[in-house]
Amino acid sequence: MPRTLKPFEYFEASTVEEAVQILSKYGNKAAFIWVPEPEDESDGVLTYQELYVRVNEFAALLRDSAGVKAGDIVTLHLPMVSELPVAMLACARLGAVHSEVFGGFSGLACGDRIVDSGSHVLVTIDAYYRNGRLLDHKIKADEAIAHAEKDGVKVDKVLVWRRYPGKDSSPTPMVEGRDYFVDELLKEHRGKRVDPVSMPAEAPLFLMYTSGTTAKPKGCQHSTGGYLAYVAGTSKYYQDIHPEDVYWCMADIGWITGHSYIVYGPLAIGATSVVFEGVPTYPDAGRAWRIAERLGVNIFHTAPTTIRMLRKAGPDEPEKYGYRFKHMTTVGEPIEPDVWRWYHEVVGRGEAAVVDTWWQTETGGFLGSTLPALESMKPGSCGPGVLGIYPVIYDDEGSEIKSGSGRAGNICIRNPWPGFMQTIWGDPERFVDTYFRRYCKDPESKDWRDWPYLTGDAATQSEDGYYRIIGRIDDVINVAGHRLGTKELESAALTVEAVGEAAAIPAYDEVKGRVPEVYVSLKPGYEAGPEIEDQVKKAIQQIVGPIARPAHVWVTDDLPKTRSGKIMRRVISAISNFVDVGDTTTLANPEVVEKIRQAVQSAKIKAGELPKELSKEVEEEVKRFGAGTE
Ligand code: WTA
Residue 153 and residue 174: Cα distance in Å, rounded? Predict the structure, then answer.
């Protein structure tokens, strides 16, 4: 292991020649260790040298076989395979913008993103392993393309990696003249080197779509220079990755966490980053710890949902394995203090420094976290703003809520920083409206001090300056750390012929944090029945993806509404979570509430889903849900 490599040395190369010199010195170090899900398959190790070669060859393929050039948008719909970072970096080398769609998303969700970004090239794979099954992924490309074509965007080239090069693992046929196997095309590009296209620091590097308050996901556009600097800096100071460490972030590269902290951040500081194809509980709850033991992982990064899942499936498993973590991260959702303690004491053996990093797709990298080992840890709290980030909490009137007051408010960031997104792709007005309008006192102002960034989260700040993030203030449901917009779920439910109205709400879940439940009322002439519930679940699964599948679909005659006709989601959210529905006298139809409550709660109790004890914060969230849109 090259112990003399300074963490910033890769990043400090300011010319291509310098980068090549650094490569020749350290090229033999592992950049990625790819761990396939089947345990009898061996790891795929990509050294920095090999990564360089493969990125060049794939860049040559993109350029010469698919016509990709600087400024084009390339959609990547790939699971957790090392071909994904190769494709990302090849796009970056050409100055093309990559738009990675989470591999678990449906073909239709991918198609929507193709349309929004106006992308004509799709990079995918024939199949991949998940939960012990080899899933057909190519079929999603066909669905995505057919869907995009209906909306007027034609994909000309589909580049299909193969899970096993030379062998077909998907039954879905290739389309002549459109679909190409990457391993076959690569033969023509063997050994090619592509000069990196020099781009301005402000040129977009990638798009990442995320959910918000409307049915249409927002394409967060991120820059090249600012983003890279920010993820490199935060990987160094908050992930504390040194060249000799083995770092494993068990997130997905299709979400911002993996994008920033599996690929760009760690690579920029010369780390060895583990990429795992599968799920951590397959074939059993010891899998993650076996990987950590075998590879000598010493920095571990995951989400509360996974921690809860691993604790439930095998609370004593970590003790059976001989790994040793010095540093661990939790990210993506609020973590309950007792879950935090299991993570710290059992997974981290009480010796690993835990950081709870709070941030968002929009922000590129961390917003709130403690500095590992330097600032004290506090279960359930992310800590202060990270270096260079100045949060502030405002109440609804725009007055600052001081630390230690115990009151929650809307957490904003006062100042701009390099990792922040540049705009919403194709919709700069929505960008300003969504994130900056709320607390701007002077819309004419050109001074950044007048434009605090609205994160969309509610938070409190304790006397010690640490923030506790409570949850979203908008209509976003955070399911297992994945953001889903209620409107996306509702529009999917409305594609079912019989459904007249739909409302999605979060129900508290021990493992996933929140799971969506959908309430629907039917159009006249349709009868309620299990087949409608089934159709709604299927529609959501097909249009959005399996993670969005509702735990329940409740069919009712009518939904509680305000006098102006808006569905009151907080009322049904209270019902689903067995929380007091509060004052319903302002409703246009208060009589429906009790009927729905009895039907839903007795059905839940019958199914063994008894009322759970909720923390004060969760109860507040439930009672507040959707209030902003009434
Ligand atoms: C939530 C994920 C509490 C929050 C990186 C935010 C968190 C949304 C934390 C962004 C945390 C993220 N503690 N809540 N440490 N980290 N969140 O865009 O509500 O997928 O607004 O980015 O996740 O989700 P996104």
Answer: 20
Output the six-digit token pair for 543. 């249009």
Q: Is the CB of 358 under 6 A from ligand 1?
A: yes
pLDDT digits (tens, 9 = 90+) for 458-511: 999 999 999 999 888 888 898 888 888 898 899 999 999 999 999 999 999 988
Q: CA angle at residue 490 from 504 to 535, to 5 degrees? A: 100
Ligand 1 pocket member 305 (CB < 6 A): no
Helix (H) or strand (E) holding 345: none
Establish whether residue 478 lines the binding site of ligand 1, counting it when its CB lies within 6 angstroms of any ligand atom. yes
Assigned token pair, 162: 């193969």
How many beta carbons lie within 10 A of that of residue 448, not counting itself? 12
Of 483, 213, 550, 544, nearest to 333 by C-alpha is 483
Model pTM above 0.70:
yes
Ligand 1 pocket check for 329: Cβ under 6 Å: no
Q: Is 360 in the pocket of ligand 1 (CB under 6 A)?
A: yes
- Predicted local distance difference test score (pLDDT) of residue 627: 72
Q: What beta strand segments (E) does 232-284 contain?
A: 246-249, 272-276
Atom number in ligand 1 closest to CA 483: 20
Ligand 1 pocket mutation, candidates 472, 478, 615, criterion most atoms within 8 A of CB: 478
Task: Check pocket membership of 483 for ligand 1, CB cut-off 6 A.
Answer: yes
Rounded Cα distance, 265 and 151, in Å: 36
Q: Alpha helices, DSSP H only, in 527-568?
A: 530-543
Distances (CA, A) of 117 to 90, 101, 492, 561, 614: 19, 11, 21, 36, 41
Q: Cα(13) to centroid of ligand 1, in Å?
A: 32
> Cα(first)–Cα(last) distance of the chain, in Å?
59
Residue nearest to atom 13 of ligand 1 (CA): 334
What is the three-class DSSP state of 498?
coil
Distances (CA, A) of 13 to 9, 26, 174, 184: 7, 13, 42, 34
At 428 the three-state DSSP class reads helix
Residues in the chain, how many? 630
Place of tokens 């190769």: 86
